[in-house]
Each structure stands twice: as C-alpha cells, then as structure tokens.
Amino acid sequence: MAAMSQLVLRDLHSFTFALQQHPRLLVFKHSSACPISAEAQREYEEFCRDNPEVPAYLVDVLDDRPVARGIADHCGVKHQSPQAILFEQGKPVWHASHMAITRGSLEAAWGCKC
C-alpha cells in the first residue's frame, strides 16, 4: 500500500470530505520555499512511510494558500508553516509546527488516541 502522504488537498471541499471520511486524520502544511519545512516534510514522510494506514494529507501553502488558510479558519488553529494538525471526529486535538514536527512527535500524537 502506498503511503497516504501522497494525498494532496487542493480545495476546502476535499478537506471537509476527508474529515467526514476519517474519524482521525493528519494534515501537514508545507512550504517548498522554507528549509525548516523541508526538514519537517522529511520527518512527515518517514512517519507516513512507517504508518501507511494513517490518513495523511498534504497542503502546499504556496500553491494552495486558500486551503491552508481555510483549514486554519475552520479549526481555529493559527496557520503556520510547516505545521501538522491531528484531527479526531473533525476537531483538532494536537498540532505542532516548525522543528517540533518529527517522526517521533507524529508517532506519539497518532498513538495517543487523544
């Protein structure tokens, strides 16, 4: 099974649909222009590779800025990049940004069943 990190959110309808389809899901916001984001993406990709069952979605904040901002508006978590947000039952239960996004922090958040 391919890592679910390949799922890219291009519009808010897709985000809403993903929330309805998955009781738990992970969203990663990434900027290709930022070296910190590149490191966070590496950690995120490692997590996704090791946990292919996790519904994980990527938002490119440069290409899809309205989606990145819309997610922040929807869930009340201030937009940052890079940023990872774990949703349960459609609500954010954990988030991290910048250097706090590591494979270990993602594994701990996913494993806690908040």
Task: List its salient traits.
alpha/beta; 5-stranded mixed β-sheet; 4 helices; 24% strand; globular; disordered N terminus
Mind explaining what this structure looks like?
The protein is an alpha/beta fold. Helix content is about 40%, strand content about 25%. It contains 4 helices and 5 strands; from the N terminus they run E-H-E-H-E-H-E-E-H. Strands 1-3-2-4-5 form a 5-stranded mixed beta sheet, sandwiched between helices. Helix 2 links the parallel strand 2 and strand 3. Helix 2 crosses helix 4.
Task: Give a brief outline of the structure.
This protein is an alpha/beta fold. The protein is built from 4 helices and 5 strands, in the order βαβαβαββα.
* Portion in beta strands: 15-25%
Largest beta-sheet details? 5 strands, mixed
Q: Gap between N and C termini, in Å?
A: 26 Å
What order do the strands of the largest sheet run in, or round the barrel if closed?
1-3-2-4-5
Residue runs with pLDDT of under 50 for 5 or more positions: 1-5
Shape descriptor reads globular
Determine the structural class based on helices, strands and strand pairing: alpha/beta
Could you report the average pLDDT, rounded to the nearest whole number? 92
User: Compute the gyration radius: what is it?
Assistant: 12 Å
Helix content: 40-55%
What's the helix count? Answer: 4
**Count of beta strands:** 5
Give the H and E element order: EHEHEHEEH
Question: How would the blueprint of this fold be written?
Answer:
Blueprint: E1 7-8, H1 12-21, E2 24-30, H2 35-50, E3 56-60, H3 65-75, E4 83-88, E5 91-97, H4 103-111
Parallel strand pairs: 1-3, 2-3
Antiparallel strand pairs: 2-4, 4-5
Helix pairs in contact: 2-4
